[in-house]
Design goal:
The protein has 350 residues and is an alpha/beta fold. The chain is built from 13 helices and nine strands. It has two domains: 69 residues, Arc Repressor Mutant, subunit A, CATH 1.10.10.10; 247 residues, Rossmann fold, CATH 3.40.50. It is 36% helix and 18% strand. The strands form two sheets. A seven-stranded mixed beta sheet has the order 5-4-3-6-7-9-8, sandwiched between helices. A two-stranded antiparallel sheet has the order 1-2. The protein starts with 9 loop residues before the first helix and ends in a 10-residue tail after the last helix.
């Protein structure tokens, strides 16, 4: 059967050129994708059906047909252009290597991530990369920082740098609240405190307009992410800064558009987007055994992931005026299913 190369989608092209480097696992292809998990899975299935790729020994390979198609739609042989020394994030972490070593030792007894709170921790290097980028942007020294949700324990890494003046964690999981406060006490980190808080609750008047920087790794429904960032915005001073992550795998560009539109309405400007900056260390056994759509929809016998694959784009926002949160800080909200789950949620359990 002759393939009409004009019908090759951008996602299919990226899969083909990725496989031209070497054989890849399913999880490798998801990590390299700039599309949703749903569309990436559809593209993989179409390439299999059209015999451009094949799956054997737990990896995907280009077929002769796939090589021929790729050659016909490419003007040059694909070469990896991401820096192999900095993992493509453009940062030199050498000045924070000691922080990374200390942080790794401090949190060896961390609470286990659980799906009830949609938890999935980023890698330790990602935590320190966050800090390095915030330092580069001048957002850490002598600043007051608030985090909503911190299963990554970035607050502890921030505290041991001794750069911020105050770090407050607002977290729904009491295990993490108690853990952070215990570490703060044990390590005599006087600038670090954690409190129990759910984003559906009102914002305490004592916290409003009090912080220079807000950091969160929110859920990815439009309602949910807007609620998280609204809560943080209400706590920021004028000209305050926000950082958060947004994936491709569970957020289409149409969703990005809606989210970004809401950010502008809140008086934020997007100053930086670092794509694939945050890598998550999701429990590999859970991914293949608990019925996540990302593993069930592909219809193949998959091995569990052997390295981080789920990733998000790190966003930096800056207020250009007083914050204008779209969710009223004086009101409580009950979003229930709409907070965590939508049709693009492939790595989220309902």
């Amino acid at each position: 059967m002759k393939i009409n190369t004009e019908n090759i989608s951008k996602t299919e092209h990226i899969i083909l050129r990725t496989l031209s480097e070497s054989s890849k696992t399913y999880w490798d292809l998801l990590r390299e994708s700039f599309d949703t998990a749903a569309n990436t899975i559809t593209s993989i299935k179409d390439l299999l059906n059209n015999k451009m790729i094949e799956y054997s020994n737990n990896t995907f390979h280009l077929t002769e047909e796939g090589k021929k198609v790729l050659k016909s739609i490419s003007k040059m042989e694909y070469k990896q252009v991401k820096c192999k020394y900095c993992n493509g994030n453009g940062l030199d972490l050498s000045i924070f290597r000691e922080i990374l070593r200390d942080f790794e030792q401090i949190i060896k007894d961390r609470p286990k991530a659980i799906p009830e709170f949609d938890q999935g921790v980023v890698s330790l290097e990602t935590v320190v990369s966050r800090i390095a980028f915030m330092y580069y942007k001048g957002d850490l020294e002598n600043k007051n920082i608030v985090l909503i949700g911190d299963d990554d324990l970035t607050s502890i890494a921030l505290a041991i740098t001794k750069l911020p003046n105050r770090i407050l964690v607002l977290e729904a999981d009491k295990r993490i609240v108690d853990y952070i406060n215990q570490k703060s006490n044990d390590l005599k980190l006087s600038n670090l405190e954690a409190l129990c808080y759910n984003v559906e609750w009102k914002v305490d008047k004592n916290l409003r307009n009090s912080f220079d920087l807000f950091l969160t790794d929110p859920v990815e429904t439009v309602q949910g992410i807007t609620l998280f960032i609204s809560r943080g915005a209400s706590m920021l001073k004028e000209n305050g800064v926000t950082y958060f992550g947004l994936t491709h795998l569970e957020a289409s560009y149409k969703k990005w558009y809606k989210i970004h539109k809401n950010l502008y309405e809140m008086n934020f400007v997007i100053t930086d987007i670092l794509d694939k900056f945050q890598l998550y260390e999701l429990n590999p056994d859970d991914i293949v055994s608990k019925g996540y759509r990302v593993s069930t929809e592909i219809g193949l016998d998959l091995p569990k992931p052997d390295k981080p694959w789920y990733n998000s784009a790190f966003h930096r926002l800056e207020l250009i005026d007083k914050p204008n949160p779209l969710f009223d800080p004086d009101r409580e909200y009950k979003l229930e299913r709409g907070l965590y789950y939508d049709d693009e949620a492939y790595v989220t359990l309902y």
